[in-house]
């Protein structure tokens, strides 16, 4: 794997604006470098100091890191805290009681504001309600909720009583929900009657019934239902309860359950891009610390900011940068119930203008679809809206293609907002590699440098460091506080997946390929390790070829995979979504030829796709990520037998089966 070639170098570089640098929490590269040096010199001291400064401990810790049972690392293990206390009560004590915590915008545009005091009271009532049902510390609670204030309150309420939550995205099927309820051994499910997205009412409670009806959920005693739409639902006596009854007459204070730093705060299943989802278990203390620090460092959060992360609470981004991080630092945030394309594809821009958002954090898949929409209809182009409140933009979830980055920078950020391209994973708990907005010169498509304290490196298959310019596998050499603690119920899979013996069993394997720039040392993610292509002995990441295709004015989105080839070992098969309608026949052949020549010119003849297939879309996870593993099967012309439980749009597979 040591020889992925970097065929093309990105030369554009954008410095953070001077006034941003002046006021930034981490201001200038020297400050960043000094922090990295501090971590290098005294790793435990670095983290201990931050943990003492940022978290309010009930009982201070005396031991920072315990490595005796590696890779089952423990952080701050004899310390005690409560995460909900740190997110809420602390804000009541430091003058934020009346500050708006959440600006909630419903699908239909209705806005509800909740101040910190009110949020605290709601969480306490919910927590007391859960206790009245007999739910206690250590129990697992599945949350299957729409984007809502109640969803966040449910998560915080679990944290308050020491119950471990497992949020399941509201778009998942009964089968996926059942598997997660069983795997987590949940005693309760918190859900809603329905959810509302894109003007449609979609069921939740009936899916919970179906999931439980599939069997195996005998440990489940309670289903708590939030009434979102008030539709009629099937109500099971002795098991189902309305949320309004559960919280009625409950006290608006609730003594937090003080837990050890290592107490599991939540279990969250990964997106399933590369295989069957894994139940990632996170601890309380280390996770909270990193949620707070990355809010401060990466997002440069200030008391006056209006922060907006568009993720769903069903994903880790919605955990760290909606349910916990913004509250723990006392920020005001926007929470959105709906979808970016309803009532039209200008919804995000409209909401930024309306609420005067200052920080906007979204995913490349959303950006690509909004580029396509703005191209087709000038009325929903971001330039039509007043986005002048924005000061910082962010991206997460997939590598962002340089051309999508440029569009975001120019049209949304008006060339004065830094973009933080944040590389991280469900397993990492928070950002790992990202520009710092007041320090790092940005390069489109590169997540640049690891945060202070994150010992990321690019190594070969046996764990040896590779020189800059040589592609390899991304690892993290030292444990960090917000790292995954184990895969719930499967410690062996945890070791095998993330700390393989081939790398010595102690360094974290991210599962992504990366390369560092010769001159700057910047990291670029080249794609998943499993997706590396080998064409005539040249090893290539998927990302570069996809980005070359996306740079063509006709192309909205692209995914490339390898296909066995007798002469070249592997040949490149590209799946392409055009900005215009899906072509067929002669037109398709014409455009395919044009795109092949384009890639040859942009990167080199070696990267030229042998085959190009057009679709209206690509197979994606429900979190919007391209599932290349399925495309690999289609390219080979084989039947799909893999886990597709997290596939959003199964119908698209049929369309992409045939080469034109
Ligand atoms: P599974 O682990 O089940 O296959 P997944 O890896 O898609 O699913 P997540 O934890 O949601 O689940 O996603 C993390 C992955 O997303 C990273 O490993 C990386 O491939 C990709 N990713 C996230 N942010 C970025 C980014 N800024 N640049 C490049 N890749 C990113
Ligand atoms: Mg993953």
From TrEMBL:
Mg(2+) binds at residues 550, 555. Residues 544-625 form the AMP-binding enzyme C-terminal domain. One of its GO terms (molecular function) is acetate-CoA ligase activity. HAMAP family: Ac_CoA_synth. Catalyzes the conversion of acetate into acetyl-CoA (AcCoA), an essential intermediate at the junction of anabolic and catabolic pathways. AcsA undergoes a two-step reaction. In the first half reaction, AcsA combines acetate with ATP to form acetyl-adenylate (AcAMP) intermediate. In the second half reaction, it can then transfer the acetyl group from AcAMP to the sulfhydryl group of CoA, forming the product AcCoA. Residues 32-87 form the Acetyl-coenzyme A synthetase N-terminal domain. The lineage of its organism: Bacteria, Pseudomonadati, Pseudomonadota, Betaproteobacteria, Burkholderiales. Residues 94-480 form the AMP-dependent synthetase/ligase domain. This is Acetyl-coenzyme A synthetase. Keywords: Acetylation, ATP-binding, Ligase, Magnesium, Metal-binding, Nucleotide-binding. CDD domains: ACS. Acetylated. Deacetylation by the SIR2-homolog deacetylase activates the enzyme. The modification N6-acetyllysine is found at residue 625. PANTHER family: ACETYL-COENZYME A SYNTHETASE, ACETYL-COENZYME A SYNTHETASE 1. It catalyses: acetate + ATP + CoA = acetyl-CoA + AMP + diphosphate. Transmembrane segments: none annotated. Belongs to the ATP-dependent AMP-binding enzyme family. One of its GO terms (cellular component) is cytosol. GO terms for biological process: acetyl-CoA biosynthetic process from acetate. ATP binds at residues 397-399, 421-426, 512, 528, 539. Its EC number is 6.2.1.1. Its cofactor is Mg(2+). CoA binds at residues 197-200, 317, 536.
């Amino acid at each position: 794997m040591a020889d992925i070639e970097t065929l093309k170098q990105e030369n554009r570089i954008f410095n953070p604006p001077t006034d941003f640098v002046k006021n930034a929490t981490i201001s200038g590269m020297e400050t960043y470098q000094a922090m990295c040096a501090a971590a290098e010199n005294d790793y435990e001291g670095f983290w201990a100091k931050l943990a003492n400064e940022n978290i309010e401990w009930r009982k201070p810790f005396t031991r920072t890191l315990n490595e005796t049972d590696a890779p089952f690392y423990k952080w701050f293990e004899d310390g005690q805290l409560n995460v909900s206390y740190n997110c809420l009560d602390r804000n009541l004590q430091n003058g934020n009681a009346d500050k708006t915590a959440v600006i909630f915008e419903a699908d239909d545009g209705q806005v509800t504001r909740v101040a910190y005091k009110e949020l605290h009271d709601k969480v306490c009532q919910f927590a007391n309600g859960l206790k009245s049902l007999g739910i206690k510390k250590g129990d697992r609670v599945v949350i299957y909720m729409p984007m809502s204030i109640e969803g966040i309150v449910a998560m915080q309420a679990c944290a308050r009583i020491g119950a471990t939550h497992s949020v399941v995205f509201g778009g998942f099927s009964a089968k996926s929900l059942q598997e997660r309820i069983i795997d987590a051994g949940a005693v309760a499910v918190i859900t809603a009657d329905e959810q509302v997205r894109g003007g449609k009412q979609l069921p939740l409670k009936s899916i919970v019934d179906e999931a439980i009806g599939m069997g195996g959920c005998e440990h489940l005693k309670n289903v708590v239902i939030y009434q979102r739409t008030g539709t009629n639902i099937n109500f099971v006596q002795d098991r189902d309860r309305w949320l309004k009854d559960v919280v009625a007459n409950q006290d608006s204070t609730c003594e937090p359950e003080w837990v050890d730093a290592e107490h599991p705060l939540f279990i969250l299943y990964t997106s399933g891009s590369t295989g069957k989802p894994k139940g990632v278990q996170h601890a309380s203390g280390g996770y909270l610390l990193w949620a707070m620090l990355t809010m401060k460092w990466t997002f440069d959060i200030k008391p006056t900011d209006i922060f907006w992360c568009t993720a769903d609470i069903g994903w880790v981004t919605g955990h760290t940068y909606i349910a916990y991080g913004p509250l723990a630092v006392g920020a005001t945030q926007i929470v959105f119930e709906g979808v970016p394309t309803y009532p039209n594809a200008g919804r995000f821009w409209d909401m930024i203008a309306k609420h005067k958002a200052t920080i906007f954090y979204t995913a490349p898949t959303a950006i690509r679809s909004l580029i396509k929409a703005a191209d087709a209809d000038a009325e929903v182009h971001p330039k039509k809206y007043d986005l002048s409140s924005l000061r910082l933009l962010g991206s997460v979830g997939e590598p962002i293609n340089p051309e999508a980055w440029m569009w975001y920078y120019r049209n949304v950020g008006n060339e004065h907002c830094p973009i933080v391209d944040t590389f991280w994973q469900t397993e990492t708990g928070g950002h790992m590699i990202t520009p710092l907005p007041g320090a790092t010169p940005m390069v489109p498509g590169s997540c640049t440098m690891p945060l202070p304290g994150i010992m990321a490196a690019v190594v070969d298959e046996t764990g040896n460091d590779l020189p800059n310019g040589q592609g390899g596998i991304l690892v993290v050499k030292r444990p960090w506080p917000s790292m995954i603690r184990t895969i719930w119920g499967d410690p062996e899979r945890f070791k095998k997946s993330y700390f393989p013996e081939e790398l010595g069993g102690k360094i974290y394997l991210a599962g992504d390929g990366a390369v560092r720039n010769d001159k700057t040392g910047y990291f670029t993610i080249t794609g998943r390790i499993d997706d590396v292509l080998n064409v005539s002995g040249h090893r290539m990441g998927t990302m570069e070829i996809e980005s070359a295709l996306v740079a063509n004015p006709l192309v909205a989105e692209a995914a490339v995979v390898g296909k066995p080839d007798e002469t070249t070992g592997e040949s490149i098969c590209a799946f392409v979504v055009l900005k215009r309608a899906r072509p067929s026949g002669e037109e398709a052949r014409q455009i395919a030829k044009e795109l092949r020549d384009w890639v040859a010119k942009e990167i080199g003849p070696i990267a030229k796709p042998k085959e190009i297939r057009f679709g209206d879309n690509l197979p994606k996870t429900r979190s919007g990520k391209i599932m290349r593993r399925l495309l690999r099967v289609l390219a080979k012309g084989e039947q799909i037998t893999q886990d597709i439980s997290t596939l959003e749009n199964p119908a698209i597979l049929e369309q992409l089966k045939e080469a034109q």
